[in-house]
Amino acid sequence: MSTESLTYSELGDRLGASPEAARSLARRLRLTRKPGNDGKMRVIVDLAEIQYTPLSARSPGGRPADIDGLKAQIKQLQAELAKLEVEKQCLEASAAGHRTDFERERDRCDTLTAETLNWTKLAMSAREKAARLEGEMSARRGRRWWGRLVAARGAGAKRPPTSVTASGPSPSQLEDGRQLLPVPARI
């Protein structure tokens, strides 16, 4: 068990990796780190305990195949995106048509509501006028029975001029000379 004090670049050379990989490994394994006299960070490590095998480099032949597959997938996604853009434009045009229909129907509804309110107002005023006229007619009908009696009495018999005595008119005679008819008693 021999421990050594190595910089990240020296550790990377011994392990066959880059200095960045050596620094990452030191952090991952929580190795003791101390600053050296030269200002560089030194790691105290026992190389026998470290079991590090660097990853093999990527083969240049496999890389273009991956790129070609990704490019094909990008083209497929772009075609799908274009298709969705066309569909979006069609839906927007349809929505605009529906919006104009909605606005036209809303205006029509507002117009019909205004007309309905006017007709309702007119109908209410007609009902009020009919009720008022009906009240006047019933009032006239109610007065008609005594009006007919007075008119029939006054037109049917010519009365001789009556003299008014000092005591005043008789109880069955009005001031203008008309006489009241007796009202039959109701049983």
Main β-sheet, spatial strand arrangement: 1-3-2
Percent range for helical residues? 55-70%
**Mean pLDDT rating:** 81
Cα-to-Cα separation, first versus last residue:
142 Å
Q: Beta-strand percentage?
A: 5-15%
Structural class: mainly alpha
Morphology? rod-shaped
Summary tags:
single chain, 187 residues, mainly alpha, Arc Repressor Mutant, subunit A, three-stranded antiparallel beta sheet, 3 helices, rod-shaped
Describe it:
By secondary structure, the chain is mainly alpha-helical. Among the domains are: 4-45, Orthogonal Bundle (Arc Repressor Mutant, subunit A), CATH 1.10.10; 73-127. Helices cover 61% and strands 7% of the residues. It has 3 helices and 3 strands, in the order βααββα. Strands 1-3-2 form a 3-stranded antiparallel sheet. The N and C termini lie far apart (142 Å).
Question: What's this entry about, in short?
Answer:
The chain is mainly alpha-helical. The protein has 3 helices and 3 strands.
List the helices and strands and how they pair.
Layout (H helix, E strand, L loop, with lengths): L3 E4 H8 L3 H11 L2 E4 L5 E5 L16 H95 L31
Antiparallel strand pairs: 1-3, 2-3
